[in-house]
Amino acid sequence: MSRLFWFPRAEVIELCREHFGVEATGAHLLADGMLNQSWRILAPDHDRVLRIGRRERTVEQVTYERVAARMWSAVAPQVIVSEHAHVPVVDGRTLTMFPFIDGISGSSVDGRVRARNLAPLLARMHRVSLDVHLPQRPGFTAMDEEPRWFGWPQTRLAMTARFGMGPDVTGPIGVIDRATADLDDLLDDWRRDGRLDLRATVHGDLNPRNQLYRDGRLVGLIDTDDCRVEPLIWDVANIAFSEPSTDPAVVWRDYLAAGGPLAARDDDLLVHFARIGALTALMWLTDDSGPTDRALDDLTGLAGQLTRGAYRDG
Fold first, then answer.
1. How far apart (Å, rounded) are the C-alpha atoms in residues 168 and 22?
2. Contact by Cβ (8 Å): 34, 46
3. Do 250 and 117 contact (CB within 8 A), yes or no?
4. How far is CA 275 from CA 40, 100, 141, 167, in A?
5. How do residues 207-221 score in pLDDT, each as one tens digit?
6. How many domains does the chain have?
7. Which of 262, 237, 258, 227 is nearest to 314 (CA)?
8. Closest CA to 201 of 226, 223, 174, 176
9. What is residue 14's DSSP assignment?
10. Which residues contact 15 (CB under 8 A, 6 or more apart)?
11. Which terminal residue of the chain, N or C, has fewer Cβ atoms less than 10 Å from its own Cβ?
């Protein structure tokens, strides 16, 4: 991005008034957004969050996101829904207004506490997703569909072109190649055997930063920007292997006890979907100009993570 702010503060305040009828008294950029820019909007009635979308996010995708969030909020009120059905576009960027939820980031909360809150919530979200059965989100594909692995073949070529073919490059590349080949075989087997048939709209990004807590209780599940149709096991693996303090067996038990629709025998899929989750880091190794300055270090770290079997992202 060519400037720190996609829109200056004064323009953000004006966008709130012009497009949402909100007479903002102030605006502060929130730090956690990686792909979008979000501002806390101060207003006399209640504070809000204005999310300014990256250019590739479309009106149709944001509309789908709101439908999914409303569906989930009916059974899980912690899911935060945008306040308006219309999606303004300014300078090629979608604008979405959410209520501001006061709470501490899940990144400051013990992983076991997060898991206890999230497992029963996911069970309810997954049941309603199956009942409503939304189609795939426009422009998205599920992780087991082709092409897989987040652009890895192109990234692989770009990495060797920039960093050469020394062992510090080819070693980590070999780890990724073997991991994706092994997972390809497993995904093909599971698809053939029908083990991935239980799929519906999932949250897709249960990063601790997307969870807000007060007194150990989840009060806000935010950033549904990555929602899409996936095998339901994706979300469960996302929290079961979130960090070393979290026990996957306890997450699985709590999810099933709360009525999670997956079969008890599917627990053997969790670790493999955690490996797939770790491999999503591949999509951040490059940007529009090629491999990032940190790409080789990040690739080496990912290879070490996969080699150790520590498929946790927390």
1. 53
2. no
3. no
4. 35, 33, 18, 23
5. 999 999 999 999 999
6. 2
7. 237
8. 226
9. H
10. 7, 50, 88, 90, 95
11. N
Would you say 85 and 66 are in contact if contact means Cβ atoms under 8 Å apart?
yes
In a domain, 158, yes or no: yes
CA geometry: angle at 242 spanning 147 and 115, to 5°? Answer: 125
Question: What is the share, in percent, of the chain residues with pLDDT greater than 70?
Answer: 96
**Domain of 87?**
9-100
Of the candidates 46, 243, 244, 236, the residue with the CA atom closest to the CA atom of residue 122:
236
Q: Which residue has the tokens 């956690």?
A: 32
Mean model confidence pLDDT for the chain: 94
Helix (H, G, I), strand (E, B) or coil at 268: helix
Question: Do 178 and 205 lie in a common domain?
Answer: yes
Instruction: Report the alpha-carbon distance of residue 169 to residue 287 in Å, rounded.
Output: 19
4 in any annotated domain: no
Distance between CA atoms of 244 and 115, rounded to whole angstroms?
12
Looking at the structure, do residues 61 and 116 belong to the same domain, yes or no?
no
Both 233 and 272 in one domain: the answer is: yes
pLDDT, tens digit, 9 for 90 and up, residues 240-299: 998 888 999 999 999 999 999 999 999 999 999 999 999 999 999 999 899 999 999 999
| Tens-digit pLDDT profile for residues 156-212 | 999 999 999 999 999 999 999 999 999 999 999 999 999 999 999 999 999 999 999
173 by DSSP, 3-state: which? helix
204 and 64 co-located in one domain: no
194 and 283 assigned to the same domain: yes
CB atoms < 10 A from the CB of 309, how many? Answer: 10
